[in-house]
Amino acid sequence: MGRLRLALIDMYNKVPNEGMRCIKDILGEVKEEVDYQIFDLRGEDQLPDTSFDIYLSTGGPGNPLEEEGWEQGYFDLLQKLWEHNLTHSRKKYVFFICHSFQMASRFFGLGQLSQRHSTAFGAMRVHKTEEGKKDPFLSVFGDTFYAIDSRDHQLLNVTQEQLNKIGAKIVCMEKIRPHTDYKRAVMAIRFSDEFFGTQFHPEADAEGLIPYFGVDPQKKGIIEKFGEKKFNKLMKILEDPSRLNMAFRPIIPSFLQYAIQALTKQEEPQN
Ligand SMILES: NC(=O)CC[C@H](N)C(=O)O
Question: Which residues form the Glutamine amidotransferase domain (predicted)?
């Protein structure tokens, strides 16, 4: 059978970022099995059709509730992929990161998106839920793990009824902060066997981020925006391999291996 085809949906709207480099690195690890094509959705209005096997939709800047004009096309694509999976044995696999995760929550009608009281930025502790403890994509982690977070918005108030409608499960939540009244935001959702999304950045790599954040203008920018204390804390976590489970960032590779195995097991043509 031929190589699998992956659509990388770039949501960065041409804003410089580390996400695309990290994702391309990860996709380099499966280059024998998977070819990928980039679609600059917000910058160039490029949207893949439904012919791809796997879709990886990135993080990006801005308010996930704002209408920029590309949303309906994106939602139509998700609708077609979701319906495809309901009626075909050869499935479509979709991974949503950060901004895309927020867009997916809008598409599926889960919870409420809102602006955080302050920007979340750094290496944050994430908690698995009971469902998360059973999730194969998270199996290498303990009950809590560190992940890179970078966002101004959050997903709150997802109800069990909303989850049940599509058969989704919340698999990670923000850390518990007993000293604040803030609600804990949702950090990862398994929408289905094939659709998975994280509010954090599972593509982030410590090896690449240390030299990136550690020099100006990034270093200066972080200190100006968040203070020296937060900068030092971020670097300390990035440099401590025992705390930094994302050093080997296993979530997206697990997703890709799962998709590759399922798709190569099945002979084409389908159904
Ligand atoms: N890094 C991201 O993708 C951020 C997502 C979104 N723009 C937010 O501010 O919450």
Answer: 49-205
- Considering the domain boundaries, does residue 243 fall inside one? no
In one-letter notation, the amino acid at residue 227 is G
Distance, CA of 134 to CA of 29 (rounded, Å):
26
Answer whether residue 218 is part of any domain: no
CATH of the domain at 136: 3.40.50.880
Q: Check pocket membership of 150 for ligand 1, CB cut-off 6 A.
A: yes
- Across the range 242-251, mean pLDDT stands at 66
The pTM (predicted TM-score) of the whole model is 0.92
ipTM: 0.96
Domain encompassing residue 191? 4-204+249-264
Asked if residue 223 belongs to a domain, the reply is: no
Q: What would the two tokens of residue 176 be?
A: 């518990």
Cβ(60) – ligand 1 distance below 6 Å: yes
Q: Is the CB of 25 under 6 A from ligand 1?
A: no
If you count them, how many residues does the chain have? 271
How many separate domains does the chain show?
Answer: 1
With contact defined as beta carbons under 8 Å apart, do 87 and 171 qualify? no
Q: Whose CA is nearest to atom 5 of ligand 1?
A: 99
CA of 86 relative to ligand 1 center, distance in Å: 30
Closest CA to 49 of 59, 57, 39: 39
Which tens digits make up the pLDDT trace of 51-71? 999 999 999 999 999 999 999
For residue 32, being part of any structural domain is answered with yes
- Percent of the chain past pLDDT 70, that is, above it, reads 94
Take residue 186 and report the two structure tokens written for it. 């949702």
Average pLDDT of 196-207?
91
